[in-house]
Design a protein that fits this description.
The chain has 95 residues and is of the alpha/beta class. Helices cover 32% and strands 20% of the residues. It contains 4 helices and 5 strands; from the N terminus they run E-H-E-H-E-H-E-H-E. Strands 4-3-2-1-5 form a 5-stranded parallel sheet. The radius of gyration is 12 Å and the shape is globular.
Length: 95
């Protein structure tokens, strides 16, 4: 399943997202969701332990000045990669 985190982890039901994540799922952070890609946040630490593949949209990281600050465990992707993730995962959930 592809989970897309569009809202800040501090402004959504992040605990529900964590409960829904299963090993092997993909999580794409975009818009304000890229805040969860910062390694010093409790959100990132919680995501890191879930056994899911973590992705963040480059344009949103750059727009917020986070590109040099995110964890090396995050795969930075573009819109073409976003489409590939959507094709790979027919089931999707937006947060």
């Amino acid at each position: 399943m592809l989970h897309t985190l569009r809202h800040s982890p501090f402004q959504c039901d992040f605990s529900a997202l964590l409960r829904m994540l299963k090993p092997g799922d993909d999580l794409l952070m975009l818009q304000d969701g890229v805040i969860a890609a910062l390694p010093a946040t409790t959100a990132f630490q919680a995501l890191q332990s879930r056994g899911v593949a973590l992705f963040a949209l480059r344009d949103d990281l750059e727009a917020r000045g986070f590109i040099a600050q995110i964890s090396t465990e995050i795969s930075v992707v573009d819109y073409n990669d976003f489409v590939a993730l959507a094709v790979k995962n027919p089931q999707q959930m937006t947060w």
